[in-house]
Design goal:
Blueprint: H1 3-7, E1 10-17, E2 23-30, E3 41-46, E4 54-55, E5 63-68, E6 75-79, E7 88-93, E8 98-101, E9 111-114, E10 120-125, H2 131-138, E11 154-159, E12 164-166, E13 175-181, E14 188-193, E15 206-211, E16 216-222, E17 228-235, E18 238-246, E19 255-261, E20 267-269, E21 277-282, E22 289-294, E23 297-304, E24 307-315, E25 319-323, E26 330-336, E27 339-346, E28 353-354, E29 370-376, E30 382-388, E31 400-406, H3 428-432, E32 437-442, H4 451-455, H5 464-478, E33 482-492, H6 494-505, E34 511-515, H7 521-527, H8 531-538, H9 550-553, E35 567-572, H10 581-593, E36 597-602, H11 612-630
Parallel strand pairs: 31-32, 31-33, 33-34, 34-35, 35-36
Antiparallel strand pairs: 1-2, 2-3, 3-4, 5-6, 6-7, 7-8, 9-10, 10-11, 11-12, 13-14, 14-15, 15-16, 17-18, 18-19, 19-20, 21-22, 22-23, 23-24, 25-26, 26-27, 27-28, 29-30, 30-32
C-alpha cells in the first residue's frame, strides 16, 4: 500500500440506467485533481448484451449528470469541454456515437431533466450576465449587495426543435433546486428556496407545480427543512408527491419521508418511529423505492400504502440509485468490506451483480480485517461501529496502538464498506496497513437508527456522543485489542470537533489530528455556511444576549488551557463550511498555552482536500504524526 495508490485511482459516480433496462452510463472521476480542473469521463455499456464498457467522451472536460430520454435512444449530459467551468447541455446518440452541444448559456447549466415531450428539456441555470454586468466586472465595479446580487437558479425550457431557451415567469424569482416530472408526463414538481444561501435556503423550501405545456405554475406551500429527493406515485386517491426532509421541529434531526396527497393536500410523515433513516426516494411508475441507512448497512424498501416494505439488505452503502420505470431493475454504487465501490445491477429484491471494476490496482492488497462492533452506551443505548485490525494481524496479536476516527456531520455514519479513502485525513485502511488498529464509532447523532437517535445531540454536542466514543474505546482496551498507553484520536469536520473536544476533556490520548474541525461554535454559526443549523447543534448563537452562551461550554477552544496532547491541525484555506478561522483560533490558543501542535494550511482547498499533492502530503503527514507519538 502506497500513498500514490490511495490517491491516484478513479471512482464511479452517478450511474444512469436507460428506461429499456439495457443501456447504462456512469461517470468515472479521479480521486485527486491535478491542476485547476477535475477531468471526468462517461462510460457506456449494454448490460444485457455484450456488457463491454466503452468510454464515450474523450475530451479533457468535467462531464456529469447523464440522463436518458424516455425512448432510451439519447443520452443527455453536462460538459464544460468548450469553456472550462461553464457546463453546457450535450446530447449523445449511442447508435452512432455522435455528441452535439445543445446550449451556449453564458452562465452555464446547473442541471437538466429530459421531459416526456421529446422536444423539451427542463434546465436549471443562473441568469446570463448582461453587458452592464460584464462591463462592471471589467472595471472592477463589482460590489456584491447581499440578497440582491446572489445568483439564483431558474427554471428554463430548451426547445430541441429550435434550440431556443425560454425562461417562464414563475416562482417569483426563487432559487430552484430540484425538478421531477409526473410519470404519466403530467406537471413537474418543483422545489424552490428563497435563496441559494446554505444557511437560509434549506429553511425556506416551498413546493410548486409547473405545467410545461401552458407555462403556468401553482404553489403547494412550504416544506420541512432541507427537503430533497422528489418522487411521484399513483394511489387509489390520486397522485401523491413525496420528498425526504428533516423531521420537525428541531433543525438537527433524523430524516423522514413526507407524503403529500395531491387531492386532499394532506401531508404526513410516512417513516415516523422507524429505527432507520431514509436517504433518498427513487421514482418509478408505481410505488417509489426508498433507500434507508440501517445501522452499518443499507435497506432498500418500497413505499407501499401501509408503509415501507423492505425488499433487500445491502452491506455498507447503496448510493446513487437509478431504476427502470417499472422498477424491476436497479443500478447503484456499492462495495464490500474489502472491495471498493463499483456499479452493481439487479432486481430490487437482490442480489446485485458487480458490472464494473474501476480499481483493479487494489487487487492483491492485504487490507486490515474489518469487523462490526455492537455495544451499549453508559445509559444503555444500543450503539455500533467498526474495528479495523492491523493488516495481517488478528485480535489475539494485540494490544495495538489504537486510533479512533470520528465521522463528520454529526449526521453521517460509518457503514460496513471498504474504509480506504475519504476526503478527510485519517484513512482507516491507510493506518491499518501501517500497524494500527482503528476504531470507527457511530455515536448518537448520526444516521442509521431513526429520528430520536439523530436528534439527541441537538444542543448537546460533545456530551453523550463523547461518552459513547469513550465507552467503545474502553471496550477495546478490556478485550486486549487497544493499548491504553498508545491511544490516538482523529476526525474531520464534526469529527475534527470531537478530536479537539477530546483532548480538552482528557489526557488519555497520546496524539490527535483535527482536520477542518470546529473549535468555536459561536464563530461557526456566524461565519460558516450552515449558520442556524450549527447553532441548533451547539445550543445557542452569539446574538442571543450577552452570555455566557451554551455554545461556549461545548467549544474546544474554551478548554485549550487543558490540552496536553500533541495535536496536528489541518485545514483548507478556502473552506467555507468550517472556515479557516476555526483552525487559526485553536492554533493561537494552543500557542498561548504552550501546547505541542503543528498547524498546516492547504492553499486553494475547501472543506475537502482535492489536489493530488495535498492529498499525498496529508497521508504521509498523518502516518508520521501517529508514528512519532504512538509507536514504540
Amino acid at each position: 500500500m502506497t500513498a500514490e495508490l490511495v490517491v491516484e485511482g478513479c471512482v464511479p459516480q452517478t450511474p444512469a440506467l436507460a428506461p429499456n433496462g439495457h443501456l447504462l452510463c456512469y461517470v468515472l472521476a479521479p480521486i485527486s485533481r491535478i491542476g485547476d480542473h477535475l477531468d471526468t469521463a462517461l462510460w457506456l455499456a449494454d448490460i444485457n448484451g455484450d456488457g463491454v464498457w466503452s468510454r464515450v467522451t474523450a475530451d479533457t472536460a468535467t462531464e456529469s449528470k447523464p440522463r436518458w430520454s424516455a425512448d432510451s435512444r439519447t443520452l443527455y449530459f453536462l460538459s464544460d469541454r468548450a469553456e472550462r467551468d461553464s457546463p453546457q447541455l450535450h446530447r449523445l446518440t449511442p447508435a452512432d456515437g455522435v455528441v452535439i452541444a445543445l446550449t451556449r448559456w453564458r452562465a452555464g447549466i446547473i442541471d437538466h431533466l429530459p421531459l416526456a415531450d421529446p422536444n423539451l428539456i427542463a434546465l436549471l441555470a443562473n441568469d446570463e450576465p448582461t453587458e452592464q454586468d460584464m462591463r462592471r466586472a471589467r472595471d472592477r465595479d463589482d460590489a456584491v449587495v447581499v440578497g440582491e446580487s446572489e445568483p439564483r437558479a431558474r427554471l428554463r425550457l430548451l426547445d430541441l426543435r429550435t434550440g431556443q431557451v425560454t425562461t417562464p415567469s414563475v416562482f417569483d424569482g426563487r432559487h430552484v433546486v430540484e425538478l421531477r416530472q409526473r410519470p404519466d408526463g403530467g406537471p413537474l414538481a418543483v422545489l424552490t428556496q428563497a435563496s441559494a444561501d446554505k444557511d437560509y435556503g434549506p429553511r425556506s423550501g416551498q413546493l410548486h407545480l409547473f405545467d410545461p405545456a401552458t407555462g403556468t405554475a401553482e404553489d403547494l406551500g412550504p416544506v420541512e427543512v432541507d427537503a430533497q429527493s422528489l418522487a411521484w406515485w399513483p394511489a387509489e386517491d390520486g397522485w401523491h408527491l413525496g420528498y425526504v426532509a428533516l423531521t420537525p421541529p428541531v433543525l438537527h434531526a433524523g430524516t423522514a419521508v413526507f407524503d403529500l396527497a395531491m387531492g386532499s393536500r394532506v401531508r404526513r410523515n410516512r417513516t415516523a418511529d422507524l429505527p432507520m433513516c431514509p436517504l433518498e426516494l427513487c421514482q418509478t411508475d408505481a410505488a417509489p423505492l426508498v433507500v434507508f441507512a440501517n445501522g452499518l448497512n443499507t435497506t432498500l424498501a418500497r413505499l407501499d400504502p401501509d408503509g415501507p416494505t423492505p425488499l433487500s439488505q445491502h452491506p455498507g452503502h447503496l448510493d446513487a440509485l437509478t431504476t427502470t420505470p417499472a422498477g424491476t431493475t436497479i443500478a447503484a454504487l456499492t462495495g464490500t468490506r474489502h472491495q471498493p465501490t463499483n456499479v452493481h445491477v439487479g432486481p430490487p429484491t437482490g442480489p446485485l451483480r458487480k458490472i464494473t471494476d474501476t480499481r483493479p490496482e487494489l487487487d492483491g492488497i492485504t487490507f486490515g480485517t474489518q469487523r462490526p462492533l455492537a455495544y451499549r452506551a453508559a445509559d444503555g443505548l444500543d450503539l455500533d461501529g467498526l474495528l479495523v485490525l492491523p493488516a495481517g494481524k488478528s485480535a489475539s496479536d494485540g494490544p495495538f496502538p489504537l486510533v479512533t476516527i470520528v465521522h463528520g456531520g454529526p449526521d453521517d455514519r460509518y457503514a460496513d464498506r471498504l474504509q480506504l479513502f475519504s476526503f478527510h485525513s485519517a484513512r482507516p485502511q491507510w493506518l491499518a496497513t501501517a500497524g494500527y488498529a482503528v476504531f470507527l464509532p457511530n455515536p448518537r447523532g448520526g444516521q442509521g437508527h431513526g429520528h430520536e437517535f439523530a436528534a439527541s445531540v441537538a444542543g448537546r454536542v460533545g456530551r453523550e456522543e463523547w461518552t459513547d466514543i469513550l465507552t467503545g474505546i474502553d471496550l477495546l482496551i478490556a478485550e486486549g485489542i487497544a493499548d491504553p498507553d498508545r491511544l490516538g484520536i482523529a476526525g474531520g469536520s464534526h469529527g475534527g470537533f470531537m478530536a479537539a473536544w477530546a483532548i480538552g476533556q482528557t489526557n488519555r490520548f497520546r496524539a490527535a489530528l483535527v482536520d477542518a474541525g470546529i473549535t468555536d461554535w459561536g464563530m461557526l454559526a456566524a461565519t460558516g455556511e450552515h449558520g442556524r443549523l450549527d447553532g441548533a447543534l451547539s445550543g445557542s448563537i452569539g446574538w442571543e444576549g450577552i452570555g455566557p452562551h451554551p455554545h461556549d461550554a461545548v467549544s474546544p477552544v474554551s478548554f485549550a488551557s487543558r490540552v496536553r496532547t500533541p495535536v496536528l491541525i489541518l485545514h483548507g484555506a478556502e473552506d467555507t463550511n468550517v472556515p479557516l478561522g476555526q483552525a487559526v483560533y485553536f492554533h493561537r490558543a494552543l500557542r498561548h498555552f504552550g501546547a505541542e501542535h503543528e498547524f498546516v494550511i492547504y492553499p486553494r482547498e475547501g472543506h475537502s482536500i482535492r489536489e493530488r499533492n495535498h492529498q499525498l502530503d496529508i497521508l504521509h503527514r498523518t502516518r508520521a504524526w501517529f508514528d512519532r507519538w504512538l509507536q514504540p
